[in-house]
Amino acid sequence: xxxxxxxxxxxxxxxxxxxxxxxxxxxxxxxxxxxxxxxxxxxxxxxxxxxxxxxxxxxxxxxxxxxxxxxx
Length: 72
Known about the structure:
This protein is mainly β. The chain has one domain. It is built from no helices and seven strands. The strands form two sheets. Strands 1-2-3-4-7 form a five-stranded antiparallel β-sheet, with no helix packed on it. Strands 5-6 form a two-stranded antiparallel ribbon. Strand 5 and strand 6 form a beta hairpin. It is globular and about 35 Å long.
């Protein structure tokens, strides 16, 4: 994990569930996530899509992640 620093990356399939998306972890920089599910809140506003996670402890500190994409 040292090479990845504070990065979080994952890949897998997903399901849309109302205003959330559930990702099934097939690959992850966090080995404990593989085989599990991560649920993210979804917000779509015009050309901006944001996914946000509930706070989680990483390295003994609470972290909240938000991923934001904007269509250009």
